[in-house]
Amino acid sequence: MKTMPFTRIVTAAGMLFALLAFSALSAAETVQLYFNPATPQIAFAAGDIKAALEKQKHTVQTYDLATLAKAGPGKKIVLATAAEKAVASALSARGGKPAAGLGTQAYALRTTTSPDLIYWVLGGDANGAMYGGLELADNIKYHELTDTYDSQQSPHVLNRGVKANLPLDRRSPTYFGSGPGKGLNKGTAAQKAIIHVWDMDYWKEWFDEMARNRFNVLTIWNCHPFPALGLDMPESFSDVQGYDGYAKTMTKAEKVAFWKEVMVYGKSRGFQIFFFTWNIYTHGTDLSTSPTDRATKDYFRKAVRLLFETFPDLTGLGVSAGENMRGLNTNAKITWLSQTYGRGIEDYARVNPGRRIHFLHRWLDADVNVVASKFGPMLALPNVHLDMTFKYSLAHLYSTPDPAWIYVKDGVNAIADLDKTGKKTWLELRNDDFYFLSWGDPQFARDFIAGFPDVKKYVAGFMYGGDGWVTTRDFTSKSNAFTGMLEIRREWFAYRLWGRLSYDPQTPDEVFVHEMAFRYPGIDAQKLFDAWTAAARGVPLAAELVMGSKNGEDGKFWWDWQWWPELCTSSGGLVNLNTFKDSPPAEGSDMCGISKTAEGNCPGKPRTSFFIADTIEKTALGALQKISSLDTKGYADLVLYQKNIRAQIYLSLYYAEKIRGATHLAANQKASARSAMGKAYCHWINYTTIMNELHTGATMERTRSFGNWSTYNDKVLEEFTNLGGVGIPSCEEATPKQRQP
Question: Is 12-153 a CATH 3.40.50.150 domain?
Fold first, then answer.
């Protein structure tokens, strides 16, 4: 029997027991907590359970699991793996249902009542026990110890990863764009990240928080990481160089010790860790980037071997046939990668047969059959495993929840190729949409995860994160409530949604409502949740409508330099009405695009651009009503989230009018287009006014940099005046009347 997380058993007996348990534990009392402190994942979860109980004014006595057989009377929590025979025997002796068939990362929760009340958390492995313990800790936070349990849970997606673009040094950048004028670590976020990358406190806080969110993979993307990691090579740096005067003296040995500690700590929170490179980059060295240079090839082969020799807890390595390999055909690119990375892994794996190495090859100008052939000697080793990775949502996760590029991109049907080869792929979920706005919509995340190709057959895991922003600590917030906070904490709702729902897509909304109620006692948590989720729906709908399709109507689609929705900009500035008008919906979308709607040519696609605009508006106005009436009770960070939600609402309303304006323009209805763009301007001013209260501007990695959020106000006004509008549009009407889509 499986019960939903944080829900109560509704049988009469269960209700009676819950009432008795609540009555017994409503006053402070002692709870005995049994676990093995030598297993770090379990000890971590035990710490959260202890903290949750102590917050409820209970006294917690901790005991080594080995002493359970000698336990005296009293209420208990037992946290262990199901393989612990003594624990399984004790559970059975008390009439508890055995936890059978638990796999990796899975857990079972049980409750027994005789002779004492005991809560049992049993994992299929240490990571599963950790996740079960973290769930119980949340239950205690939200409900006290009032639930009974007879449930089992296993992960829907086995590998739930983060794509972290991280510069390791000013000489060892993450990807920074290509072409003339592109500088190393140009973006402010990248420059400010280096100090945090070399701070162990940052990593401990990061791994703790992400484990609670059920993530379990960290992929660190860097053009050329080897010199910065302290490998035993002449090219390795003997210090750390950053920006704004930051520098740190570290020997090679100290660097190695630091990253070993990072990886050990990550492992203690259930994480696998990968480095991922673009190619061919040789930053920080005098080596050539020519694919024919023998010294460069020898260097990469040695660096890869040393990487695995130096870091025993590194899970694997990923590669991309990146921008510095332009000019080579697919065969030549994969040949070079196999002669460098492939040979380096082979050199290590052949003499270390007991260590399993995971190798990821990006599906960028690559063919899985060629990869399997060129890397044949490496893949012949039984301890080397190959997966592919695919840009599943291109650069914009927050567009269509059911993208189809994996079936049609660049003439490749990745699923058909996986069928032929028996391989799996990781899905890259690129978030180059939201860097400042606090997105959160569980239904979108559920729909997106439900749309994955068969996860057991095709999907090894996913990686969530952006290329155009480096996510470390907040530096743009104008309030001390957020400044310096981990960005994953500031954006807690989004990270919790993607982690928890990819582990269990059936996790109900109630879980997230409870979390809001716990963070802000006394507020109307349901109203906050409803407003937040509704406000988050507008921008993805607009993005889906204009995202583009490489194999679609006009061959256009938007990458990260062509579309940043938070400021409606590209590398060329404001994305204008004509660009909207000419852009088709995302591949796989059932929307009828702007130009087709204007033509009245939407057979079988009832979701026209007008329908989308009306839907965005109605949803946004509903959110505005709720968030405007929410009493924040003076919580400093909730006041900021309330403003952030309002900002999302006004940005959504801006896009609703811009979609209408573009559709009218495509239909040659100039007066109607002008009217829509006048309203769009008013919403834009409301939006940028709030954003200027909340955040500074920044130097961007892909799109145009901006000093403040009003940078494009004049350009937005021009979209009204260019259509014949005069002066400043009247913005006296606070909100438009709700339309029924």
Answer: no
Reduced to 3 states (helix: H, G, I; strand: E, B; else coil), residue 103 is coil
Please state, in angstroms and rounded to a whole number, the distance separating the CA atoms of residues 210 and 93: 36
The type of residue at 220 is I
CB 369 within 8 A of CB 331: no
DSSP per-residue letters across 642-707: HHHHHHHHHHHHHHHHHHHHHHHHHTT-HHHHHHHHHHHHHHHHHHHHHHHHHB--B--SSS--BS
CA distance 270 to 238: 31
SS3 608: coil
- Nearest partner of 450 among 505, 492, 412, judged by Cα: 505
Task: Find where tokens 């006048």 sit.
Answer: 678
Task: Confirm if 243 and 191 have CB atoms less than 8 A apart.
Answer: yes
Burial of 184 (0-12, 13-18, 19+ CB in 10 A): middle
Residue 440 in tokens: 């959160």
Task: Identify the three-state secondary structure at position 494.
Answer: helix
Give the C-alpha distances (Å, rounded to integers) separating 107 from 81, 110, 167, 269, 454. 8, 10, 37, 16, 23
Q: How many residues does the chain have?
A: 741
Within 10 Å of residue 73's Cβ, how many Cβ atoms?
8
Strand partners, 273: 218
| Residue that wins the pLDDT comparison between 412 and 512 | 512
Q: Tokens for 81?
A: 């793996």
At 457-484, the pLDDT tens digits run 999 999 999 999 999 999 999 999 999 9
Residue that has been written with the tokens 């997966």 in this structure: 387
Q: How do the domains of the chain map onto residue ranges? A: 12-153, 159-522, 535-716
Residue whose C-alpha is closest to residue 436's, from 174, 693, 160: 693
Asked if residues 565 and 601 have their Cβ atoms less than 8 Å apart, the reply is no
Whether the per-residue pLDDT at 189 is higher than 70: the answer is yes
For the domain made up of 159-522, the CATH class stated in words is alpha beta
Instruction: Give the distance from CA 372 to its chain's centroid.
Output: 29
Q: Read off the pTM.
A: 0.94
Give me the pLDDT at residue 238, please.
93
Residue linked to tokens 């348990």: 21
Contact 546, 170 (CB under 8 A): no
Extract the tokens encoding 685.
């001013």
pLDDT per residue as tens digits for the range 67-115: 999 999 999 999 999 999 999 999 999 999 999 999 999 999 999 999 9
pLDDT of residue 27: 66
Q: How many CB atoms lie within 10 A of CB 248?
A: 15
Crossing angle of the two packed helices 126-143 and 40-55, in degrees rounded to 10 = 10
